[in-house]
What does this fold into?
Amino acid sequence: MPLEHAQALTASRLADLRARLAPLFAATTLPITLEIGSGHGHFLTAYAQAHPDRFCIGIDLIGDRLERSARKSTRAGLANIAWLHADVRLFLEALPAEIRLAEVFLLFSDPWPKRRHWKNRVLQPEFLSQLAERTGEGARLYFRTDHAPYFSHALNCVGEHAGWALAPDEPWPFELATVFQLRAEGHQSLIARRTCSIGQSH
It folds into this structure.
């Protein structure tokens, strides 16, 4: 794809996403919880139901998953949840300037086990920097995986990033076994706390 066409396509997607986000944030003053790769919506629907004081947004790249998620939250009668077809990096760029995320869940994302594919993992230093810019101080990042090498990678990335601090003594905030978790033989979790001002993160 020619560069100019790719840039135009990205700009169009960004504009569309901003248009879809605007009414969501206009209608709520609740702290924002984001789930990246929300799957079939089991976790976030239950989380939103248990936390009416949060506005929850689930994003995924697979339309069928989002449709199933929407049916779940509609059946539950939830008004504090929304589902969006979006790439996380574009989503973060599309957020209104005044919006800061309070919590972010990244559960069982693709570990891309082959070394040549590691660059495709969501949790990277660049992602942590972008996320730090869109979260308030004290925000939490919750990460869980069943892939031990990816967990080690995540520990290193978070531990070495100026904008985040590992919080090993904090309890996991909400337990619900997702489809992916039920398939896994085991899992590891980390919690990170947003620490410094935006200007200090890198």
Observations:
- The helical segments are 3-26, 42-50, 63-75, 88-94, 125-133, 148-159, 179-183.
- The chain has a mean pLDDT of 91.
